[in-house]
């Protein structure tokens, strides 16, 4: 008996090895594989001569292979396979990364279609080939999947073909018939067959529309159901207390939006249900002090607070900040991170369990099983998108439905935030603390690097501090040497006589912390860093940041990096270095030059990249849609949302018999698997 829940190994040609690769993509069963849709189709039907493509675009060229060069080993795990082609007018060097067989499989003198990124410079044309097919191959649409290394497209296509042949008849329609009719949507079986093997672009679009609609419809149903769910009672009531001791001890006065957010939190504390609140604020907007206020109030009622940060640097910075604000008021603060020795951890954990600490700050070590709280009333997660849902859950479980504050600097538009964090209330910090000046931003070519470095030196000589974000080839192997060499070079040239520190991902937490603290104390004036400084590090005296290869970063990431400066009274600068001249890159970077507003930048970023890339794969906690794109498909989303709403109006809990399959799918696939379940 076949079943859609059969493991992929039920398909011929799938052994344990391929099963593992599939698992990496989240594919366990045949059903998962059927729903593993291509992102798009590459169209091989319109090749053009080399001269007609712009540099730094994805080009499709019909070319004859003239030469194969010996492979070039760049370093461990990186070999280039190069060849030479001609389109009849010009020649072009082609490169395959780490793909021995791609070039081997091509015959000299034969003609193929090459698709890939084209660069044109003084030495001529160069293409980094991403796909190549024989010219006479009639197939013009080629699927692009989000594949993982070692999983060959051909094999995947065969597996999908087999799965469709044997299992498609078992697939059941998921959408109500009236919706299929109203929006002229393909039946599910047809859609699945056609999304994998469309006969033309139009067939693909139709299949995609149907599947997007389905996804957005279920997404909406799930969000509505979550929101409408009966809420738990507040088992951690924290009555209003006087906040003035806290306010009076601050070295600055709060912004209006900080006050408002704190008030909202205090109100939640004593409301009938536990707090579930998202505090969103641009970098530097001052979220930490809001968190401190919440901890203060919780402690006044005898509750412990846990503050979870994604990195050790950030955790220990929070500890220092909160220590400064709260210990004078008699609040005891502990720091629990992975780098403590076993013994230290044990002692600290004993203290946490005893109630010796009112506020515990930490990294993932916080939610490990061994940590037991005495009376946990409040959980705060900083930079929440870096945590998985499960990690947050684990921490919440440590108390009896504690209040939960989620802090995020990812400045997504309000509407999108509400869609994504549908069941959270929202507080927004939309003002900067007084006295902040916008960071003046420049975009320059590397031929001006020396001048920029001298400018940086001048800032340091005038008492400021600076960051340089390294040109880094790739996280990992090359990172260490590249960064070290670069820092050495700077020390011996422009920055002679200035204390230069180095921060990179290969350092352990203690080393990082030592460097960061020295920088914070002003003992280091220039910090050369790979992107590890990105998260939340706060050194108000730092006023200049130079970012190499700025084109490699997304806009929001650049904004985060830039947010390391402009935190104090000093005039601040951000210098973006990039030699990429294609119009897209220039346009992106000029957004940075023109705006200091994280929300505006995020919107531009979303527009330029689409939500899929914006949230990326590393961003946990947001339900990643499989096929639909909230921005691109926003009209379809509205439609699907309206339909979901009206269906729930008629049957609020999807209890009617005819809605049973719908209800099961929403519960199982969406609420349990993809969305928040606290
Ligand atoms: P983020 O929102 O990026 O986490 P932080 O909480 O790190 O921002 O705050 C950034 C800096 O601004 C810190 O040095 C903090 O002390 C300072 N700050 C916060 N609120 C105010 C305020 N109302 N007035 C002046 N400075 C403030
Ligand atoms: Mg922060």
How does this structure look, described?
This protein folds into five domains: 1-41 and 144-171, DNA polymerase, domain 1; 46-138, Nucleic acid-binding proteins (OB fold (Dihydrolipoamide Acetyltransferase, E2P), Beta Barrel), CATH 2.40.50; 172-227 and 633-678, no CATH class; 244-429, Rossmann fold (3-Layer(aba) Sandwich); 440-615, P-loop containing nucleotide triphosphate hydrolases (Rossmann fold, 3-Layer(aba) Sandwich), CATH 3.40.50. Strands 11-12-10-13-14-9-15 form a seven-stranded parallel β-sheet, sandwiched between helices. A six-stranded parallel β-sheet has the order 16-21-20-17-19-18, sandwiched between helices. The longest helix has 28 residues, at 201-228. Helix 6 crosses helix 7, helix 7 packs across helix 21 (634-650) and helix 18 packs across helix 20 (598-615). The chain is built from 22 helices and 21 strands. With 678 residues, it is α/β, with parallel strands linked by helices. Mean pLDDT is 85; it is low at 473-477 and 611-623. The structure holds adenosine-5'-diphosphate and magnesium ion. The site of magnesium ion has 4 residues, from helix 10.
């Amino acid at each position: 008996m076949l079943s859609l829940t059969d493991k992929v190994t039920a398909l011929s040609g799938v052994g344990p090895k391929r099963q593992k690769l599939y698992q990496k993509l989240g594919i366990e069963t045949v059903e998962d594989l059927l729903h593993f849709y291509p992102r798009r189709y590459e169209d091989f039907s319109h090749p053009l001569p080399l001269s007609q493509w712009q540099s730094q675009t994805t080009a499709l060229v019909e070319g004859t292979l003239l030469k194969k060069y010996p492979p070039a080993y760049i370093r461990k795990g990186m070999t280039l396979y190069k060849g030479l082609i001609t389109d009849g007018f010009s020649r072009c060097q082609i490169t395959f990364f780490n793909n021995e067989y791609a070039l081997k499989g091509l015959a000299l003198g034969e003609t193929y279609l090459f698709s890939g990124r084209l660069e044109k410079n003084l030495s001529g044309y160069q293409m980094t080939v991403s796909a190549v097919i024989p010219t006479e191959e009639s197939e013009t649409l080629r699927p692009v999947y989000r594949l993982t290394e070692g999983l060959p497209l051909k094999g995947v296509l065969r597996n999908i073909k087999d799965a469709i042949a044997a299992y498609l008849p078992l697939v059941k329609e998921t959408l109500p018939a009236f919706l299929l009719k109203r929006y002229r949507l393909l039946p599910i079986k047809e859609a699945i067959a056609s999304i994998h093997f469309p006969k033309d672009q139009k067939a693909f679009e139709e299949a995609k529309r149907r599947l997007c609609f389905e996804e957005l419809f279920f997404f909406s149903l799930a969000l509505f159901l979550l929101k409408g769910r009966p809420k738990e009672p507040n088992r951690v009531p924290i009555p209003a207390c006087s906040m003035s001791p806290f306010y009076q001890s601050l070295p600055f006065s709060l912004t209006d939006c900080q006050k408002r957010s704190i008030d909202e939190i205090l109100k939640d504390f004593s409301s009938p249900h536990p707090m579930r609140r998202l505090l969103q604020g641009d970098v530097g907007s001052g979220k930490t002090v809001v968190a401190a206020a919440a901890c203060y109030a919780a402690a006044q009622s005898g509750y412990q607070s846990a503050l979870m940060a994604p990195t050790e640097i950030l955790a220990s910075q929070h500890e220092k900040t909160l220590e400064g604000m709260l210990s004078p008021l008699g609040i005891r603060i502990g720091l629990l991170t992975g780098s403590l020795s076993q013994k230290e951890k044990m002692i600290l954990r004993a203290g946490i369990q005893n109630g010796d600490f009112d506020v515990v700050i930490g990294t993932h070590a916080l939610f490990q099983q061994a940590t037991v709280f005495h009376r946990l009333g409040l959980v705060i997660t900083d930079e929440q998108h870096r945590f998985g849902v499960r990690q947050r859950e684990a921490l919440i479980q440590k108390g009896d439905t504690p209040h939960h504050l989620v802090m995020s600097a990812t400045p997504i538009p309000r509407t999108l935030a509400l869609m994504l964090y549908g069941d959270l209330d929202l507080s927004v910090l939309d003002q900067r603390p007084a006295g902040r000046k916008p960071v003046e931003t420049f975009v320059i070519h590397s031929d001006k690097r020396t001048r920029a470095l001298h400018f940086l030196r001048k800032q340091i000589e005038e008492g400021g501090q600076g960051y340089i974000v390294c040109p880094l080839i790739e996280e990992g192997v090359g990172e260490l040497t590249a960064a070290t060499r670069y820092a050495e070079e700077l020390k011996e040239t422009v920055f002679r006589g200035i204390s230069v520190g180095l921060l990179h991902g290969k350092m352990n937490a203690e080393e990082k912390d030592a460097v960061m603290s020295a920088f914070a104390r002003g003992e280091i004036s220039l910090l050369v860093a790979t992107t590890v400084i990105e998260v939340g590090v706060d050194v108000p005296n730092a006023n200049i940041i130079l970012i190499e290869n700025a084109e490699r970063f997304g806009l929001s990431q650049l904004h985060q990096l830039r947010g390391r400066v402009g935190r104090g009274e000093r005039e601040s600068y951000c210098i973006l270095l990039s030699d990429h001249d294609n119009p897209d890159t220039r346009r992106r970077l000029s957004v940075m030059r023109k705006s200091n507003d994280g929300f505006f930048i995020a919107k531009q970023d979303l527009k330029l990249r689409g939500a899929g890339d914006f949230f990326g794969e590393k961003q946990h906690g947001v339900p990643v849609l499989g096929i639909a794109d909230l921005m691109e498909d926003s009209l379809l989303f509205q439609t699907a949302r309206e339909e979901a709403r009206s269906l729930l109006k008629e049957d609020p809990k999807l209890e009617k018999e005819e809605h049973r399959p719908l209800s099961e799918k929403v519960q199982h696939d969406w609420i349990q698997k993809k969305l928040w379940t606290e």
